[in-house]
Amino acid sequence: MELTRRRMLAISSGAITMAGLGAFPAFAAVEEEIAEFTGGADMGEGGITLTTPEIAENGNTVPVEFEAPGAVEVALWADGNPTPAVATFKFGKLNPTRSAATRIRLAGTQNVVAVAKMEDGSYQMAKAAIKVTIGGCGG
Amino acid sequence: MASGVKPRVKVPKSAAAGDTITIKTLISHKMESGQRKDDDGNLIPRSIINRFTCEFNGEMVIDVTLEPAISTNPYFQFDALVPEAGEFKFTWYDDDGSVYDTAKKIAVS
Lengths: 139, 109
Known about the structure:
heterodimer; A: alpha+beta; 6-stranded mixed sheet; B: mainly beta; Immunoglobulin-like; 3-stranded antiparallel sheet
């Protein structure tokens, strides 16, 4: 078949759909890991604040900051990374603000999810979308 | 033991009793993720720091589990309450079994 401009468009949009489908299993993995962390409990929102840049030029080092007053444990995930788990923070009594900042790697544009386990046993979630210009997983 | 690992910690020299201070820590480490390939296409094995803890006079302030998604030269910033004069102890645990630690004293004014 002759490769016309119209056909080319059809092929490329097909390719984009495929790429989109490819991203879903990774997110399912994150949901599973979150369910494991919370034990399937319901999650509220608003008890944890996640501060991230909207656009990260370099996926190798993306500054991430969170604050979850009253949390005993906070876990971070990046749903588009080959291994979605990022880090788990446990807080002691000597940490009054229950906040922390670190730098993480992101393979591409994706969501970062933070789940906090509160002192009363409930869970709070926050999510942030980050656009990544250059991915940070080599390969 | 991975070469060139050097912990750096920033803690104020003194604080008022009951004050909250901010601590910044950085340790130079390549944090090889286990995802990258070398020039021949072989996977470079994972080699990261998998745990970081901070204690004040033996009481836990923060305990972090690190995954390969933490950047090269892991950096952490967090707050700590200073009830009395004492010493902050920072410990990093490497995948290869090495343990790096450093301590900072703080005076109460």
